[in-house]
Protein: Transcriptional regulator, TetR family
Organism: Qipengyuania nanhaisediminis
Amino acid sequence: MTERRGRGRPRENDSDTSAAISRAALQRFAAQGFDATSLREIAGDAGVDVALISYRFGGKQGLWKDIVSQAGTDLREALERALDDSETTGAHKRLEHSAHAFLAYLLDRPEVPRLLLRDITIDSDRSKWLLETLSLPLHRHFIELAQAAAEERDKTPAHLEFRVANFIYSAASTVARRERLGKLVGGMEDDAQFAAALEEVLVAGALIP
Amino acid sequence: MTERRGRGRPRENDSDTSAAISRAALQRFAAQGFDATSLREIAGDAGVDVALISYRFGGKQGLWKDIVSQAGTDLREALERALDDSETTGAHKRLEHSAHAFLAYLLDRPEVPRLLLRDITIDSDRSKWLLETLSLPLHRHFIELAQAAAEERDKTPAHLEFRVANFIYSAASTVARRERLGKLVGGMEDDAQFAAALEEVLVAGALIP
DNA sequence: GCAAATATTCAACAACCATTGAATATTGAT
DNA sequence: ATCAATATTCAATGGTTGTTGAATATTTGC
């Protein structure tokens, strides 16, 4: 596999600095939003020069897209794993398993829903990318499961697609606003309590009525 | 009432240009977000010079706060009106009325939830202002009603506060993402159909189980 | 119409931004 | 040790931003 043109060998640390940049960028983008974050901030956090970011990722937008598509891949894998784990069970159980895996992913990487929440804007190149990379696959996944679950019980729930979309986004935005929520509602600091409320209200209440 | 120090009289058109600026700013902030919007864009839309904005509103942040507190006042008035209209009925009916009025307000001024959605960020001066000006009063209003409604039926629903907070934010973000939702779910273009789905899923399903 | 007060514009500022091209450092194969 | 290739930094650039102070226009009481 001699893909390289030069005679030298690339460094091994390559991905180290790239990973540091990605990590810092995800934090900053999630906390402050794309427009309020400067490449200089990210470079400072990652301990590299600003120019390196443009060199590696082809610019600010390129860095953002890289982060989002990485998150999309991770999420897709988590969902497929959940599907494999519950292959033999009924449709209803599989839906429950997927919902649980989705919530677990969000709780594990709260920066992702925060970033999602910020960049689901109306007029922006990024939002289209976000819709296709994250929202659409997720939506299709849950629609399919929810329909199978409904058929299994011989039900035809009203606004099923609307309900699914609402579940996905409510879950993401609730996790994203968790700290803020803590100032309005008690018990948000405790991880287990928060997860239980999420599961009960959003899954059992909104998704699977 | 001789509050003025000068001898001349101020213009009458004052509020005209101010209103034009506010209107343009609300549109831009809602569509693009605070940071992605420049005062020059807003001034262009409103047909005035950039400097006028800083002169009138004391800067970009001042303009933003002015818009938000205006929206807060409008919303509070709409809710009080709904409360007056259903004063004699039961607690459950009053909760329903308030929820309906809230949804109607959001549908009537979709820029407000869009702005809300964008600026509920983690690290920002504006988000605190937003929380206190819009979120907190709204939350208190619905908590009170929901608790009264629960007592009326001798129920103690689990996670009541969490459920209320989720209702408020789900409603706001669903309206804010309506156009995007249309690409995932059918029937979002029709106003009546969209309102019906909102009412059924969010009010009857999530808020009043 | 004069004068005072406010509204609006004009012009300029300093700060910051992302990006780029050249210069340097580091790596690994030979 | 040498050399080529990549990784990283340095320095500069053109553009945009929000704000400010001076200049002009407009309004209204006298």
Observations:
- The mean pLDDT of chain A is 89.
- The longest helix of chain A spans residues 125-152.
